[in-house]
Amino acid sequence: MSGGNGNGHQRVVRIEDLRFSYPDGTSGLDGLSLTVNRGEIVALLGANGAGKSTLLLHLNGILLGQGTVEVGELPMRRNTREIRRMVGLLFQNPDDQLFCPSVKDDVAFGPQQLGLSPGEIALRVKSSLEAVGLTGLEDRNAFHLSLGQKKRAALAAVLAMDPEILVLDEPTGGLDPRGRREMISLLRSMDRTLLLATHDLTLVQELCTRVVVLSGGKVVADGTPEEILANNNLLLEYGLA
User: Fold this and answer.
1) Going from the N-terminus, what domains does the chain have, and what CATH number goes with each?
2) Which end of the chain is more exposed for a tag (fewer CB within 10 A), N or C?
3) pLDDT of 123-149, one tens digit each?
4) Closest Cα to residue 44, out of 239, 166, 199, 230?
């Protein structure tokens, strides 16, 4: 992927002064602003509690804070249903996403909600499982898969919705070295805009075109992986090294 080169830098996400507090009063986001262009692969870095997961959950309307969230020019509050078709969210824990009797049922669930024909659903299930390397495991129960396979099954379920933007929470978290390599290779093959919250700096170096550092629910740094990862004082200050 070109990281947005040659696309006229078409904006696909615009967030302005986004604020959100949890019911117990804990601040999740504190005036965060961010723009993402089509084709970018953006890493969200920050210590635990910096606001990474909270931000991801605003990108398809699971959480609704105060401020502006637009996806593809559509304001979130009036277009949540449409935006959920455009933004595919991969949770940190695949068990939060897989709940059907078999892998193929999990992957088919989203397209069924879209009201697609049985033929189109079958096609999407087949192509999504092929894309993540799980062909042959269609009839397995997800709970009998390894963590790496579960993460890929959950990703297949997201891909079956054919989203323009993929939003991923710790996609390599908990994986062994082989599982990490497979996930990074898989994400590299995706011809989509990606936003991923991660603590995996190797993933950032190998995959991402841009790094955004969060702290206290706002953006504190934004640059290329080379710029951010070479700034040792920045990494130490925000708990990244």
Assistant:
1) 11-237 (3.40.50.300)
2) C
3) 999 999 999 999 999 999 998 999 999
4) 199
Q: Shortest CA distance to 232 belongs to which of 224, 220, 241, 222?
A: 241
For residue 148, the SS3 value is helix
Share of the chain above pLDDT 90, in %: 92
- The DSSP H or E segment spanning 183 is helix 177-188
Helix (H, G, I), strand (E, B) or coil at 166: strand
pTM: 0.90
pLDDT confidence of 9, banded at 50, 70, 90? confident
Please tell me the distance from the alpha carbon of residue 210 to that of residue 226, in angstroms, as a whole number: 9
Q: At 125, which amino acid appears?
A: V
Close Cβ partners of 175 (under 8 Å, ≥ 6 residues apart):
147, 148, 151, 183
Full 3-state SS string of 37-99? ECCCEEEEECCCCCCHHHHHHHCCCCCCCEEEEEECCEEHHHCHHHHHHHEEEECCCHHHCCC
Q: Which two tokens stand for residue 126?
A: 């087949």
